[in-house]
Amino acid sequence: MLILGIESSCDETGLALIDSEAGLLAHAVYTQIDMHKLYGGVVPELASRDHIRRVIPLLEEVLREAGRTKEELDAIAVTQGPGLAGALLVGVSIAHALGFALDIPVVGIHHMEGHLLANLLADPAPEFPFIALLVSGGHTQIMKVSGFGQYELLGDTLDDAVGEAFDKTAQLLGMSYPGGPAVSALAEKGTSGSIDLPRPMLHSGNLDMSFSGLKTAVLTAVKNAENPEDETFRANLARGFVDAVVDVLAAKAVKAMKQNKMKTLVVAGGVSANKQLRNRLVYEMKKRGMTVFFPPLKLCTDNGAMIATAGLERLKHMKPEEIQAHFKNLKFGVKPRWRLKEAAQDLR
Asked: How far is the CA of 325 from the CAs of 102, 104, 230, 313, in angstroms?
């Protein structure tokens, strides 16, 4: 089965082709970072317009790279939510237009389910069940994954997602959007412990998290600094911020593993590319005889490959009559605030 994956939920346009036997054949991503950094964050209307410009050329690119044609497609998987409504509508419209023209089914995929299953493209790939740590610009969640479509939310951020906290810290340190890679690189030059920042909810007794207070602590440190533009101060503050984030995420992940008697941790989302977080989780899991999986670096950000993977899994779990229904249903829509639990219930 040959599946096309389309991702357009925010500021990356991603398309990919996955064969059920041969695996990932081709994928391409266009990022809008250079456009949005002028505004310090994503501008929804600009994002939508750019998706329109990029999606067809990217489709042609992945087909050419894979040596396939549109007529060989068996199904299309597209991000239906959550995300920016206008951006989602671009991908969903293209997917359904292609599906109608080619007479093939189109399945809507939850964006975070795509991130969750991106690790299935790793070599080796994790096996169910596992604990998942989802860390991105919009989500910071800990989930128990018993199988495909069997997701239990164990912990969530009460305010900022960790990726959002990285972006806001970058702004306070005078760096442009997106902040994650820049703050991480600056932290490498800093000294741990030179600036001590709080670890919010580290000892809360549950698996929930909070990062808005940490952002406020960074703001206070900048305001109280004699010379906030001093490179040593900036590097040490970045180090203090990263250390605080990593301490919280690692502690919560270990706690979730112990409480649920799990041996496998899967990390997904854009922040899963963070060097300090990867190193810490590898250390913590190895020390306890546990295993941690990360998606390939090229698949940490939003991409079509993770959507195609989730689509393939969803088609495997759908009844023939349900798949057939996708040929006849010409209605489509987007779900900007779609909850993963609701997406999982569609399989039951």
From this structure: 15, 10, 62, 17
